[in-house]
Specification:
The chain is mainly α. The protein contains seven helices and two strands; from the N terminus they run ββααααααα. It has a two-stranded antiparallel ribbon.
């Protein structure tokens, strides 16, 4: 349970509604399944991962380290206590993917913006469930 303060001295408990909780679970489930799949094909060094990575200008040997980095960020994201840190790291990882697609002049909607869609799905569950994230976003 998180708390929200109307007055600095009087904490008021707040809990997400059932709908909010389910939206957060569905969004997190979708993004986690995608990232597990993506990290797995890189960790297993499957042909589609190697081909896609080399087409973007990276060496074939970069597939495994990229998969390890993604898996580590995802692990941090899956642990509730470290989820915000994992989300920040995944956002950086996905920013690199966006930059790579921009540099390779990939199609905008399907390739350049796709990592941004994934990043939104990374942050949406945290925003819906974690009052600290909501306070941070509102203060920005």
């Amino acid at each position: 349970m998180t708390t929200r303060t109307l007055d600095a001295s009087i904490p008021t408990p707040t809990t997400p509604s059932r709908i909010t909780t389910w939206v957060a679970r569905i969004a997190q489930g979708m993004v986690v399944l995608f990232l597990i799949f993506d990290a797995s094909i890189k960790l297993l060094q499957l042909a589609p991962a190697i081909e896609g990575t080399t087409e973007l200008g990276f060496a074939a040997g970069a597939v495994l380290p990229i998969g390890v980095i993604e898996a580590c960020c995802l692990t941090l994201y899956l642990v509730p206590r470290t989820a915000p840190i994992g989300a920040v790291l995944l956002t950086g990882y996905l920013g690199g993917a966006t930059a790579t697609h921009v540099a390779n002049q990939s199609p905008l909607v399907s390739h350049v913006l796709f990592p941004i869609y994934v990043a939104v799905l990374v942050w949406l569950p945290l925003y819906l469930r974690d009052a600290r994230v909501r306070r941070f976003v509102r203060a920005a």
